[in-house]
UniProtKB/TrEMBL annotation:
It is found in: Cytoplasm. The keyword Metal-binding applies. GO terms for cellular component: cytoplasm; DNA-directed RNA polymerase complex. It comes from the Archaea. Belongs to the archaeal Rpo10/eukaryotic RPB10 RNA polymerase subunit family. Keywords: Cytoplasm, DNA-directed RNA polymerase, Metal-binding, Nucleotidyltransferase, Transcription, Transferase, Zinc. Pfam families: RNA_pol_N. InterPro entries: RNA_pol_su_RPB10 (IPR023580), RNA_pol_suN_Zn-BS (IPR020789), RPABC5/Rpb10 (IPR000268). Part of the RNA polymerase complex. The lineage of its organism: Archaea, Methanobacteriati, Methanobacteriota, Stenosarchaea group, Halobacteria. This is DNA-directed RNA polymerase subunit Rpo10.
Amino acid sequence: MMIPVRCFTCGNVIGEHWEEFKERGREGDEDPAKVLDELGVDRHCCRRMMVSHRDLVDVVSPYQ
């Protein structure tokens, strides 16, 4: 649904970076690895959560 506030593995706060990562990734010009480096998301577990997340709020909201 929504990006978790914290990484499930290490507990670092990652939710605050989601909007900027999504906006910069939508443009398609920037490499996701470079964007995550600039945002300060260094751990592999946190990067996995950011890259693999799908925003499903729009898909699920009609069923509420």
